[in-house]
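Quick one:
INPUT:
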């Protein structure tokens, strides 16, 4: 095939791409236009979308909890084998607005604890190593921190927030989809016609497509940062609640310091649930779901120095 034949073939491919993307853009636009023309009242639309977000978020929460427990291969601690531990757990639960949760032990990738569920049907999973290097007082402080998460239903709230974020990003993406398809088709078609298909993103239309794509990504990023910031605030709140109930903020500070010294976690399925913050640099901190351990310990030490132990006392 000569040079002219090759250019002709590439031109035909470009026109085919333009037709394909143009048709996809038109069909998507027609679907959006039909929906808009037959849209229900705004209040009804908001209620339906909000309801679907809540339903899918709750289902994600339930399946996610089951998936995590399955991945951990955790074993429930029988009450008859640890009566002293359960006595302290029952007393702690009585001081807080939670039912006594199930206590499970697992071999995690690092010594840690996590709370799943809510105040009425919670589960607390403890890494087996915590029983070796934490004192009874420190272990109870960690349990109080996890109970605080159950009390405020933090894991459910976080799951709902992520579900709402996916809904918002989905609507934004779908609203811009006809334009994105059309611009992408033009950019790819022109690149093939020019004989440089690999450089389709460098032209004017390719740059515009990238601009819109980055705009949607920016919405996703901002919402993610807001959710992560809320998560860090909830960690501080759980620390404060644990210190309030036990009256021993230094016990929690010591426990967090011990966990931090021996932990070096990698990002994975359970990372958003871990007790410690694992990012030291500035960018890592704003993306982290947990505050830095140093910040948490400093707040607890300041609390211990500023106030005397409260009247609530748990037996050890």
């Amino acid at each position: 095939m000569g040079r002219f034949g090759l250019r002709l073939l590439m031109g035909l491919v470009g026109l085919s791409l333009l037709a394909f993307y143009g048709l996809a853009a038109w069909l998507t636009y027609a679907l959006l236009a039909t929906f808009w023309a037959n849209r229900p009242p705004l209040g009804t639309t908001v209620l339906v979308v909000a309801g679907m977000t809540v339903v899918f978020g709750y289902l994600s929460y339930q399946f996610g909890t089951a998936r995590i427990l399955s991945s951990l291969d955790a074993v429930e601690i029988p009450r008859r084998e640890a009566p002293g531990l359960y006595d302290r757990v029952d007393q702690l639960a009585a001081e807080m607005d939670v039912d006594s949760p199930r206590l499970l032990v697992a071999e995690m990738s690092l010594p840690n604890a996590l709370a799943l569920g809510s105040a009425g049907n919670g589960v607390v999973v403890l890494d087996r190593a915590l029983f070796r290097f934490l004192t009874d007082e420190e272990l109870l402080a960690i349990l109080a921190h996890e109970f605080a998460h159950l009390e405020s239903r933090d894991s459910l709230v976080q799951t709902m927030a992520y579900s709402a974020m996916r809904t918002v990003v989905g609507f934004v993406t779908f609203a811009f989809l006809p334009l994105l398809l059309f611009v992408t088709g033009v950019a790819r078609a022109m690149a093939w016609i020019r004989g440089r298909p690999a450089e389709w993103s460098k032209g004017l239309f390719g740059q515009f497509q990238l601009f819109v794509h980055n705009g949607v990504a920016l919405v996703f990023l901002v919402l993610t940062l807001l959710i992560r910031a809320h998560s860090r605030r909830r960690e501080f709140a759980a620390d404060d609640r644990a210190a309030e109930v036990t009256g021993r903020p230094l016990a929690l500070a010591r426990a967090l310091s011990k966990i931090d010294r021996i932990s070096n976690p990698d990002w994975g399925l359970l990372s958003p649930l871990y007790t410690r913050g694992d990012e030291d640099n500035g960018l890592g901190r704003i993306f982290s779901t947990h505050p830095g351990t140093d910040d948490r310990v400093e707040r607890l030490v300041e609390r211990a120095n500023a106030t005397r132990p409260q009247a609530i006392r748990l037996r050890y």
